[in-house]
Design a protein that fits this description.
Elements (H helix, E strand, L loop, with lengths): L16 H11 L2 H10 L55 E14 L10 E16 L2 E8 L5 E12 L2 E9 L4 H4 L20 E11 L3 E8 L15 E11 L15 E13 L5 E14 L2 E13 L9 E13 L5 E11 L11 E13 L4 E12 L8 E11 L1
Length: about 400
């Protein structure tokens, strides 16, 4: 399947929630024991001297797929440590992760749309754990708990060096800059519309790494049916790869442009091939490219994706393309903790059709981000104006107010 499954879709897997929860509970089993040790510590013991915290070894970090380096990250204030308090800790091989988003949306959907959702809503909460199982062996589990608990990521990776990593499980296929970016790194609350062209999360294996901090690569083989589908519908697989090159500066998050930094430039290329089992094994060829550049307080990124779907001779539909692009400038003003974002995008998810969700779309977004707590807390306000360029035009503009708290 080319498009990722919608949140809450669990077709093909009997109950993926239960094993994911069992693993998560097992990983966090060290919490009560650690807490008991903390609260029963002798009160009369001499206080340990306060020492300066040691920076974590970068080689032990668990990167996202092509998550850019955090060079230029907003400064974080040092945490005060009370010398007489023994802080509770988890098991040494567990690092809990939390991306909480209190998201308030005001949607203006046309009543003629089949899934019209005008009004207000609050959504989004992701929880999980990551850590080290053994030397050079890492894992990650992430669940979407906004409405019901749904598995997002569950993978294990052997990574003896930054240049070589082998990952197996469910995770995002390495295609599309915005699609593979962590939601906490997005400069606007929502991804651009062309993210729907990317395969997204799937079950498979991937070889990836980076060389000298300049060249990044990833190649993966997946079922090609989407996330939380435990079996391959046909005998074909999704093959997808991505290359990135940073000839100038260092890779940078899509957001956090606000810190002063020298000039930087990163280029990316994607390619993929899939045979969709749910649409009569139609051949789908994917290509795409992206660029991101930054200088001091300003940055700009852009991306183009194309998926060419070739219908079999006996299929009941015509061949079509999915294609689109976006351009997104971002800059800081007033302070280093306040940034503004613009985005222009145009995409068509079915060039052969003009019905709802198949129309060519043009959209413009304007947004602003305000950072707190060294960048871990982010308040986002954005408004999007959407126009249908073919077929019936609907009123479906969106205003979003989102508070994001990230602990990772």
């Amino acid at each position: 399947m080319l498009l990722p499954q919608a949140p809450g879709t669990l077709q093909g897997m009997k109950n993926p929630v239960i094993p994911a929860l069992v693993i998560l509970i097992t990983l966090l089993a060290g919490v009560p024991l650690a807490y008991a040790r903390a609260v029963t510590a002798p009160t009369g013991a001499a206080a340990e001297p306060v020492t300066e915290a040691t920076a974590p070894d970068p080689s032990t970090a668990v990167p996202e797929v092509f998550a850019p380096a955090t060079a230029g990250e907003l400064p974080r204030a040092p945490e005060a440590v009370a010398p007489a308090f023994v802080a509770p800790t988890l098991a040494p091989w567990v690092t809990p992760t939390l991306l909480g988003k209190a998201r308030f949306e005001a949607l203006e959907d046309d009543a003629r749309l089949p899934d019209s959702k005008s009004g207000f809503r609050v959504t989004l909460l992701e929880i999980g754990a990551r850590g080290t199982l053994a030397d050079a062996v890492f894992y990650r589990i992430k669940l979407d708990a906004a409405v019901e608990v749904t598995p997002l990521d569950f993978w294990v990776e052997y990574r003896p060096s930054a240049a070589l990593g082998l990952r197996a499980g469910q995770f995002k296929a390495p295609f599309g800059r915005q699609e593979i970016a962590h939601t906490g790194e997005l400069a606007l609350p929502d991804r651009a519309g062309i993210a729907a062209i990317a395969p997204g999360r799937d079950i498979g294996v991937m070889l990836h790494g980076s060389v000298a901090g300049r060249l990044g690569y990833a190649y993966g083989v997946f079922n090609g049916e989407g996330r939380n589908l435990s079996r391959n519908i046909n005998n074909a697989f999704l093959h997808v790869g991505r290359l990135t090159w940073t000839p100038l500066g260092t890779p940078v998050d899509e957001t956090e442009i606000t810190a002063f930094r020298p000039a930087g430039l990163t280029l990316g290329l994607n390619a993929g091939l899939n045979y969709n089992g749910d649409i009569q094994n139609a051949e789908t060829r994917l290509v795409g490219g992206d660029v991101s550049a930054y200088l001091d307080r300003m940055g700009v990124s852009g991306e183009y994706l194309l998926a060419r779907v070739k219908a079999p001779a006996a299929a009941g539909f015509a061949s079509f393309d999915k294609r689109g692009f976006y351009v997104q400038p971002i800059f800081a003003a007033v302070t280093d903790r306040w940034e503004f974002v613009l985005r222009y995008e145009r995409y068509d998810l079915n060039t052969a059709g003009a019905t709802v969700k198949e129309q060519e779309i043009e959209a413009g977004w304007i947004g602003t981000n305000l950072y707190f707590d060294g960048g871990r807390e982010k308040l986002q306000l954005a408004y999007g104006k959407v126009a249908e360029l073919e077929g019936v035009e609907y009123h479906n503009n969106t205003a979003v107010l989102q508070l994001q708290v990230r602990l990772e």
